[in-house]
Task: structure prediction
Amino acid sequence: MKNLESLISEYQNIAIPDELEQTAAKTIVNFNQRRKKNRILIRCAISAAAVIIVFISTVNLSPMAASALSRVPIVKNLVQLVTFEELSYQSDKYVADIKVPQVKGLEDKGLEKFLNQEYLAENTKLYNDFLQKIGENELSPQSLALFTNYTVKTYNEDIFTIEEIKLEVAASGTISVTYTNIDLKNQIIITLPSLFKDDSYIDVISANIKTQMKQKTNRDDGIIYFVAGDKTFGGGGFDKISPNQTFYINSDSKLAIVFDEYEVAPGSMGIVEFIIPIEEIQDILVSNVYIK
Result:
């Protein structure tokens, strides 16, 4: 797998508008500080735009990495996530680099085809919407940038989870994330409702998240959450998760509930996630096949 320095070198020839570079640099600085807590470290900032692209690119599985994984004995059937296509655009004020992933190696070829068609359609629309947006704002002095990429979040004998990260840069940077959790044994997509006996999980998980928010809050360290009823933020804020709230099952077989940047906390905290203790949801789980 290419190291960080070689990846940076590959992107050194990309010229980025000064206005966009300054905005992107500020976004990356804040993003790096937040992601250190999640054990992701970006050590170099030679170019703000290069760092954005390097960050997004290094998380993808290269063919070399896939080849190495195929030699790991515990992986019976190698499932790969590769970049099928890149949709790119660059002008004096606008930059887009959209990765279109492709899943390979699923036993259910129908599911594999469905996922790949969805990824292609989703990212093609994202790219076309970007082109339309910059066309409508051609006379605007504001610079815009859009970057996406996919990476493998969890991979074991039971689960293959794909993470999609999207970074939009305009007046400020906004990061969002989605996950696709695949049951490798049954060849199905795992949804949040499918994990539970009924919709009581909404209230149970929401209550635990509020408890965690209160426990973790430390204004001196900039750890603040928007909780419903808190008059500090006008009484608005997080009340309940949605029935299909963003989630993934981590490598420890724990349920992680995830919120986009600005959704339940200030932008300085970035993407926020909460690991739900098994004892809080054990009684309402359908089984412990996925979550243990």
The longest strand covers residues 144-155. The helical segments are 4-10, 18-35, 48-58, 63-69, 109-136, 201-216, 278-281. The chain is about 30% helix and 25% strand. Confidence is low (pLDDT under 50) at residues 1-16, 23-76.
